Amino acid sequence: MTVRIDIGEMSGGKRGELDLEELLATRLLVQGNSGSGKSHLLRRLLEQSANWVQQAIIDPEGDFVTLADKYGHVVVDAVGTEKDLQMVASRVRQHRVSVVLNLEGLDADRQMKAAATFLDGLFDAERDYWYPMLVIVDEAQLFAPAAAGEVTEEARRRSLGAMTNLMCRGRKRGLAGVIATQRLAKLAKNVAAEASNFLMGRTFLDIDMARAADLLGMERRQAETFRNLDRGHFVALGPAMSRRPVPVKIGPVETAGRGGSPKLMPLPDQPAADAKDLIFTAAPGELPVRPRPPEPVVSTGEVLDQIAGAERAATDAQAPAATLLDFGEREETIAQIISEILAEEDAAFQPIASLYQDFQVRCRIAKLPGGTPDLQVFREKLSVARAGVDTDDVDDGAWQQAELIASQLPEEMRGVYLLLAKAALAKAPCPGNLEIATAYGTRSPGRARWLLSHMEERGFLVCATDLRGNRIVTLTDLGCQTAPGDEAAA
From what superkingdom does this record's organism come (predicted)? Predict the structure, then answer.
């Protein structure tokens, strides 16, 4: 069965038609500078073929998500882990659903990893699900760069490998690559060379015009024609369209992208004084930026006087209690004292010996029933207090199990485990490195990362990163995990 789709108008009023079955076998490369109409061409192709073939669109800017409203494409946002995205890609092939992989909001490195994971999932599907599929990759130079850029070598290698598989080996698996790029010079040659159909739009740089002319079999002196093409006009060549280069004007589309070209509009008419106020005056509800006041300088004499005053208060004789020691409020008193210690500035980062000495003095002042706890007990309670864990909205049974598991860790790590357990049980985002470091008694985010690795090696938790770079911690013994959280969150 031959299916021909209309992509626009050729010279002489003839319709520019594209053989869809031939396209599935021979692939397509679209090239044109920014503003030449590449996205419009891809949208026309997608709309005309939506009822005939399954489609998957790798969309780095979120321009094609509007296809979902009219043509039923499922928008797949790049969230969750790479394993989740690979499973989604496998189900896409199994159930023959057209999708748009929305990579908007990710940096270049994570876009490459997400695209590679999704393409690998499509490529590795079982043989029973090798149905025909158009795989459209917009801004292909981002995913198959000709040279290393600012992204990591791992991301570049994975993305380039996935794109090479799509264009070189995808045909036997039913995958037909349609790649669009702003510059041929930036696209890896082994990816571009596998396309047999070409639509070349407006191009200005000599190196790109020369490569476009070579691909179309045109003479070098004819390469200048690419510089004079209007927006939405392309030169087509390939077995799916024409055996010789022919000009094509792309037809209209029924949907629109969320971006579009900027339109000129007049500036607001207002006096210069008002404009100055808009810039330098805080809006209602907006906090003005004020410089932080300098911290007061405490002299050595004042520190010695404070120490002497604390020692005198501790040694002052007080009348003994008229009854036996009451241990009912002992734990509450200890928690209150530790809370007061940690409330002081920088107390959470002081050495344990200094904090314990302060704790002993405060316990004597408060006439703590039963005497001052030893250093090991203080370490345990301080660790939990540093984490600032509030268990009001956590199931009591699950929290008791978390405390039992935490007791198997060293004293200084128990608070960190309970901090993570609270987040996991409440389905809250994973705490950031700074919060974890504070719970451990340090300011170093690197120390927090080491601590999580150490706890993971001992089997207490498993760390994973979703496609947006957020951390997810799974507490294996509790059987729950945190929501994705930013490691750098304050």
Answer: Bacteria
Q: Do the beta carbons of residue 18 and residue 25 sit within 8 Å? A: no
> pLDDT for 65-107, tens place per residue?
999 989 999 999 988 788 889 999 999 999 999 999 999 888 8
| In-domain check, residue 267 | no
Range of the domain at 56: 4-250
Single residue among 192, 217, 250 that ends a domain in this structure: 250
3 to each of 18, 25, 27, 223, 448, how far by Cα in Å? 8, 13, 16, 32, 59
Q: Which helix (H) or strand (E) holds 101?
A: strand 99-102
pLDDT, one tens digit per residue, over 260-271 is 566 777 877 767
The tens digit of pLDDT for each residue in 10-51 reads 877 788 889 999 999 999 999 888 888 889 999 999 999 999
Domain end among 204, 229, 250: 250
Query: What is the 8-class DSSP label of residue 283?
Result: P
CA 293 to chain centre: 37
CA pair distance 461, 470, nearest whole angstrom: 16
Query: What's 61's DSSP letter?
Result: S
Classify residue 326: in a domain, yes or no: no
Inside any domain, residue 389? no
**SS3 of residue 246 by DSSP:** strand
Mean pLDDT comparison of 205-219, 398-412, 430-444, 468-482, highest-scoring range: 468-482
